[in-house]
Amino acid sequence: MRNSKNVSKYLIGKGTFSQLATLLADRQEGYHVYLIDIFFESKNLNLPKRNEDVLFFVDTAHEPTTSYINELRDQIFAKKTNLPTAIIGVGGGVTLDTAKAVSNLLTNGGQAEEYQGWDLVKKAGIYKIGIPTISGTGAEASRTCVMTNYKTGLKLGMNSEFTIYDQLILDHELTQTVPRNQYFYTGMDTYIHSFESLAGRHRHALSDAFSIQSIELSRQIFDSADMMTEENREKMMVASYLGGASLANSFVGVVHPFSAGLSVVLGTHHCIANCITMRAMEEFYPKEYKEFWKMAEKQKVTIPEGICRNLNAEQYQKLYDSTVIHQVPLKNALGENFKEILTLEKVTEVFKKM
Ligand SMILES: [Fe+2]
Fold it and tell me: What sign results for the dihedral spanned by CA atoms 115, 120, 123, 127?
């Protein structure tokens, strides 16, 4: 059994974002790196940024690639000769994961792709603060940071204790301006992680408790008249954190591998890909399938349909390959012989239902 670690410190509540300057007070020597979601480029976040600090807007149109992480490292070293004393990530899952990966890479050296896997990071990264501005992926709490290496086709994070944030600020005031559909797609990520984890073969008592509470909060939010009230946005921050904390000790199931197939082959973003995958999940998760579609209807959210209906044989083969490659979650959900259930014909049929 792995020794578990969670985020060391967190501030939670409306307006806590304004305490960022206080958190940085004893790291004033040296410079800080701000990685900010491009969504905020034209908005004033009131960051305590000083002249010597470095700021990058993170392009969230694509999920992080290993070459993007290497490039950010190069851009930091093009401006500075020493290491920063803090990295601050402000944004959604893509930005939060980018900040984690850059933090590890700066102190460990080499290239980002050398750390794709489990426990390959050898040294603690730069002290990092994570500030989510949309909730659901659990990136603020998890011990990984998803990256794709386009040279090898490998989509795998730096799964390590060192990837976990040192400090979080969970201020739901920051999620006020999230577009409604996006809020739903991303929020559902934690609901989906949590039921996949609970339905799995590898169980962990604490992880189960995190998942159960994350699902309970998701129900309260998405079964209410308006998922985006102030109270619900605060609950959503907690649900996301708990879902991410649960994942540190558990595995996902059938939804995430199919969703990853959509991302790799059709370039569909993670959270919306999960929701599209839910169209075909009735036979694997009948209860959650029903509940998911009830919640989508209640919140009047539209989820794309038919994106895999008229593809060619080569595309279905690619979808199959990039789904069954995720052996760990599929074994967790379906057992050692999952490939006897998920044949090429079966997987194609599942994708066609989406
Ligand atoms: Fe996810």
Answer: positive
